Amino acid sequence: MPKIIDVALEAGVSIATVSRVLNDNEKVSPELAERVRAAALALGYRPNGIARSLRRRSSDVIALIINDVSNPFFTAITRGVEDVAQRSGYSVLLCNTDEDPGKEATYLRVAEQQQVAGIILSPNTATSDVSRLLDAKLPLVVIDRILNEPVDSVMVHSFDGAEEATLHLLASGWKRPACMTGPSGASTASERLQGFLKAVRQHRDLDELYEHAPFTQEGGVRAAAALLGMPHPPDALFVANSQMALGVLDEVRRRGLRVGQDVGIITFDDAPWAPFISPPMSVVAQPAYEVGRRAAELLMERLSSENPLAPRAVTLSTTLIVRESSKRLLAS
Amino acid sequence: MPKIIDVALEAGVSIATVSRVLNDNEKVSPELAERVRAAALALGYRPNGIARSLRRRSSDVIALIINDVSNPFFTAITRGVEDVAQRSGYSVLLCNTDEDPGKEATYLRVAEQQQVAGIILSPNTATSDVSRLLDAKLPLVVIDRILNEPVDSVMVHSFDGAEEATLHLLASGWKRPACMTGPSGASTASERLQGFLKAVRQHRDLDELYEHAPFTQEGGVRAAAALLGMPHPPDALFVANSQMALGVLDEVRRRGLRVGQDVGIITFDDAPWAPFISPPMSVVAQPAYEVGRRAAELLMERLSSENPLAPRAVTLSTTLIVRESSKRLLAS
DNA sequence: CTGAAAGCGCTAACAG
DNA sequence: CTGTTAGCGCTTTCAG
Lengths: 332, 332
Hints:
3 domains, 12 helices, alpha/beta, six-stranded parallel beta sheet, homodimer, 434 Repressor (Amino-terminal Domain), DNA-binding, six-stranded mixed beta sheet, Rossmann fold
C-alpha cells in the first residue's frame, strides 16, 4: 500500500502539500495540486483512515447501535439514518446488541475506541452506561427508548399510541383486553403498558391484564400462552411490537382460536407483512424512517456546530391503522 | 481521556510495561501487573483503539457488508456472523449497501481505511471490485452471491432449490408456471431462474415465462403485474425472494386472484411471517444463520493462520417447506 | 503558497 | 522481567 510519502516523492512535493490537496482545505497552486492528484492516481494511493483519525482525533464514521436488526422497526430507522448520514459524507456502522447489555457495553466501547464521530443509540434500558461517552464529549443521540441522561433524543409517543389502540379495541366491542409488552426495563414497554392501562381504567369493571416478555417472537408465544391460559382469559390483545405479534399468532392458532371472532388483536409497528396475514393486522404505526432521519439530523448538527448545543428532544406521533384483526365479527 | 503515559506515571512503571499488562501477552511480574491494573482502573483508562490499530496495522473488528438489512435472510446471516465473531473476540460492523454499487464501493473503502481485520461481503454483482482488498491481502469471504475472484465463499444451492420448487409446483397440478427473479447481475437471481428453467424444460409444451425485477417488495409487484397482465398469464409463480413475495401478494390481491385456486405461489426464503399469511406460504428455506456462521468461521481461521490458505468454497443446501400457497385447490 | 518537523497514542524491537 | 526508543501514516503548526 502506497503511503503519503510515496505520493510526495512521485509528485516531487512535500508530504504536507500532498495532505493539503487531498483534503482540499488549504490553498495549493493548481499545477502542484494537479501533479499530486496524478501521482496519487498513478500509485493507487488511498489515505489510511486510521492514521488520519489518530491525528485528527475523530473519523467520518458514525455508529448506530440498535437492539435488534431483525426487527423491521429498527431496519427502517437504519435507512433513515443512512440516508442523511451519507448525504453529509458520513458512513454508518451498524451494531446489533440483541437486547444484551453486555453486547451494548462492548459496542459502546468499540465505538469510543474507534473514535467514531458520533453515536446514535437505542439503549437497552434507561440506565445504560454512557458516562464515558459523555465525559469524552462524544456526540450522542438516543432513540426509541428513554435514557436517564440529558442528551439529544428522538422518541415516539408510545403512551398515546397504546391508549388509542386499546380504546379502539374497546370501541370495537371487545370486552376483556389484555396487554403484552416488552421487558420492564425498556421505556417503550412500560409506556405502552401505561397507555393501555389508562384506556382500561376509563371503563368500569375491567381487569388490568398484562404480561411482560422479551420483544421477540418467542416472547410473544410465552406471553400469549400465559394470558390465554388463564381461567378467565382475555378476548382481545394489545401487543407491544410486531415480532411478539408473530408469536401471538402462533399461539392463538395452536389453541384453535380465530382472530376477529374469538380474539381481537392489535399491535405496535406496521411490519411489511401486516396487511397480508389472515386476517390483516391492525397496527399502531411508528414513523420509524423518520425517527432515524431526525436522529441523524440532530447528530449532524451537533457534529458541525462548534459550541455545545443544549440537548433537544423530539417526539413523533403514531398512526392507528385499522385493518381486520381488531374488528369483532360476531360468530355466525 | 487518560493515555498510557498517565497510567505509567500513576503506577510508577514504563509505558511498555503498561502496554504489556494490558495486552497480557508477555511476562510481567504479578505485583507490577497489579499496580498497573489498579492505576488503569483508578484513572478510568481506556486504550485508544485507533492508535493501537495504527501500530498493529489491524484491529479486532470485522466488517459484514450486506445488500439489504431489511431482508430477513440477511439479518439471519448477521446473527450467525455475530455469534462466532463475538466468541473469538471480534466485533462486527454491519454495512448496508442497499443494492447500490456506489454504497458498496464506499463501504469497501471505509472497511479498508478503518483497517478492519477482515471482511464478509455479499457482493452486488459478480464483478464488484475487490482488487484493493486482494492487493492488501485483507482476509475476505464472500457470501450469498458469486464473485469472480478466487476467494473463500459460502453459498447456497440456489439452482437445485429453484428446480425442486418448480417441480413441486408442476407436481401439484399447476399448468403454467412463471419465475420472478432478481436483477440479472446477481448470481442468486440467475441461478434461481436457471433452476426454474431446467424444471420447466423437463415438461413438454411449457412456455418459459420469467421476469427480472429488484429483490424488493416493489420489485415483486412490478414483476407480478407484468406476468399476470399477459394475455395468457401464468397460473403459478416461483418467486426468488421473500420481499418480492410480499409484493406479489399485494398485486395478486389487487387483481382479485385467490392464492391456491387461481394462482399457486412458492418463494425462496422462509421469512418469519411465511406461516401466518393467508394461505400459509410454501417456501424454499435457506440456511441463513448457517451461512453467516460458516462464513465467520472461515474468516476466523484465516485471521488466525499465518500462512496463506487456499480459497475454500462451501455450498449449503436448501429445504423445501410445503405449506398451502403452492397447493392447488380445485375451485368449487 | 510550500516545506520541515512535531506529534496523535500505542506496540514492538532491542537492550539491559 | 523491565525500560528506552523508534516508528505506524497522517495532519498541522510554524517558518520561510
